[in-house]
Amino acid sequence: MSDTRRRVKVYTLNEDRQWDDRGTGHVSSTYVERLKGMSLLVRAESDGSLLLESKINPNTAYQKQQDTLIVWSEAENYDLALSFQEKAGCDEIWEKICQVQGKDPSVEVTQDLIESEEEHIEEMPETSPLIDLPTCELNKLEEIADLVTSVLSSPIRREKLALALENEGYIKKLLQLFQVCENLENTEGLHHLYEIIRGILFLNKATLFEVMFSDECIMDVVGCLEYDPSLAQPKRHREFLTKTAKFKEVIPITDSELRQKIHQTYRVQYIQDIILPTPSVFEENFLSTLTSFIFFNKVEIVSMLQEDEKFLSEVFAQLTDEATDDDKRCELVNFFKEFCAFSQTLQPQNRDAFFKTLAKLGILPALEIVMGMDDLQVRSAATDIFSYLVEFSPSMVREFVMQEAQQSDDDILLINVVIEQMICDTDPELGGAVQLMGLLRTLIDPENMLATANKTEKSEFLNFFYNHCMHVLTAPLLANTAEDKCEKDAVVGSTKSNTICPDNYQTAQLLALILELLTFCVEHHTYHIKNYIMNKDLLRRVLVLMNSKHTFLALCALRFMRRIIGLKDEFYNRYITKGNLFEPVINALLDNGTRYNLLNSAVIELFEFIRVEDIKSLIAHIVENFYNALESIEYVQTFKGLKTKYEQEKDRQNQKLNSVPSILRSNRFRRDARALEEDEEMWFNEDEEEEGEAVVPPVEKSKQEDDFPDSYEKFMETKKAKESEDKENLPKRTSAGGFKFTFSHSASAANGANGANSKSVAAQTSPASSNGSSSKNATLTTAVTATKGSLVGLVDYPDDEDDDEEEEASPRKRPRLGS
């Protein structure tokens, strides 16, 4: 049943105004992704091939005739009809069309039509009468103008007028009249001719454009369009096109057809962009054929140039030749820039061939030379060309730089040339640097990297980038946050340093761009960037910029840290707590005072994230080291919330610890089944002594732990007595030289407690440990390194997160809560 209901014949109206049968098939209405809308599809009943694919446009006038016919006009005035075998099928499709256009299916026409369009399909005579044009004379110009403007609202009458103009060679006659009017200075006639020519352009007919834009006619067409009745004085478009606009041939073009095509395209583009008014919403489609005319001209130009390999080879040779003078090179680069812009008109497969041709001819090595030149204009155009290449195929560019790396020094690698251009951008607003940063981001984005069966582009390219290019990218950042510079500029005892960070706005902007790229790396590059950050101690250097007078730069540094913490990676957390890297962030928060600004909100959001996500190691570190300085901040509950979480965790651990028999705790840390990456294990376990870190007393001493509740009060007294002594022994190291943490009482409380405790443990286990340093060393042999008392030296696996912090219920923690 459904087969016959949807069975249709497809008809199209030919140039002789007769209906051609295109075949019989079955119609359906469905959403077509390519056309971005509901469309009518007709598949042939013989072989299933597609007879029709037509998007149901909201503005197209559809007519329902005789209960089984639907007729409409497509773009290019291409008339179509569907003849249904059954009325029911016609009604179904008509409902779909009305639904898309928001019309009531009871109507027979979906849009308001001029009466001439309401001719029924079977009533159309075989030779549809053309519109009778008035004779082409001066006194008939007004009549012609009225006729041309009156047909614009009707697709069928537009079609008829176009045929009449074409058949009678009418346009050339009109342009002869234009010359007569101009010689006679007949202003009224010239105004009518403006309306006529503009109306003919709006007929949107390619065959008429071929006549109007031919060499013999185009200047007269431009002349007619100078006499806009709404202007007091005519424009001088012809003068501009003939005298001002200069055609430059970087290499002489021998093909006359190609040269003519280039001239024609430039002039037609000028008509569309400069002379004709910007079309209103209702006129958008009036000039669609004009846009297509320009589009296809550009395709032809690119194809003709591309096929002439001798021409392109000559351009490349001159571009890279050292003897070429600067002006010539600038013209060559601008030619390539326009050539690439034209290439955007090509179909995907043709564009593919175009860029492959350029790659084969050596566009990338040529760009490498040109981008390193002094001339700003040349560099800017070269950057535009590079952006076309990166946008087209990041993989092609990556492949080139990796091959190049095997033969060249790091300094002259294309990516390093790009990075250096970014760093050395002289524009105060860094316009070029921003563009280059975007291209770099595309190149290092794993999302567009290919993975093949035998190799992965991602691992190969990222290895290359971190080995050969990353040091160039981070050089300005490291240079501007160098420790010797920081220490020299720091003010002793101050939480602020004077000139650690560049006051120069341009440098600050550059560092912000670099940080944006590094933040992107943190999100997308996992272990490559992790190794780099830890090997270079990069986060510490970045956080020096929290001191910048440029708030946007401080926020960039904070965003970098926020992304790292957002990964919830315990290796990063350990690195942060081991290096005491919250200190500059908290300094910035306190220095910001009571100001309610973006910096304040961003810092609080960082701590709120840690609280909400319950990152235990960071919560413990923050509360133990910085809570005294932060507890006064009460306009948000974040810091109180951190303290609450910390205390809840401690209580939970203590309960758990007390419920475990001591015999089970004796070998707490011997977990041979653990598998860690060796390099990261070593990194986290080295240099404890240099860092001056606190240590956790060994949990094996179960006797002391069993006596813990009884010795608590004694311990408090010991702690207070020892506090001042231990304060003097604390390491004086600051996070980046310039930060002198002023609220040392909270840090010393924790360290003091730890110092007292570690000595008492040392006394029990090693009688030889009589002074503080030997005590520390003795303890180090059995204790696991902790970061300010919050992290153990092994990985916190989720399944024994609770166990990992059991030993931290040692006496040094409980006194801190009351200190």
Automatic annotation (TrEMBL):
Quote the InterPro entries the UniProt record gives: ARM-type_fold, EVH1_PP4R3, P4R3-like_central_dom, PH-like_dom_sf, PP4R3-like
PP4R3 EVH1-like domain: residues covered: 5-101
- Which parts of the sequence are annotated with region: Disordered? 681-819
Composition bias, Polar residues:
776-788
What are the protein's GO molecular function terms? protein phosphatase activator activity
Ranges annotated as biased composition (Basic and acidic residues): 700-731
Composition-biased stretches, type Low complexity, lie in: 744-775
Q: Which domain of life is it from?
A: Eukaryota
Q: Name one GO biological process term.
A: DNA damage response
The Gene Ontology CC terms held by the record are: nucleoplasm; protein phosphatase 4 complex
Gene3D superfamilies named in the record: Pleckstrin-homology domain (PH domain)/Phosphotyrosine-binding domain (PTB) (2.30.29.30)
Domain Serine/threonine-protein phosphatase 4 regulatory subunit 3-like central: where? 143-648
Q: In what ranges is there compositional bias, type Acidic residues?
A: 681-693, 797-808
Q: Which family does it belong to?
A: Belongs to the SMEK family.
Question: Which protein are we looking at?
Answer: Protein phosphatase 4 regulatory subunit 3B
Organism equals Strigops habroptila
The gene is PPP4R3B
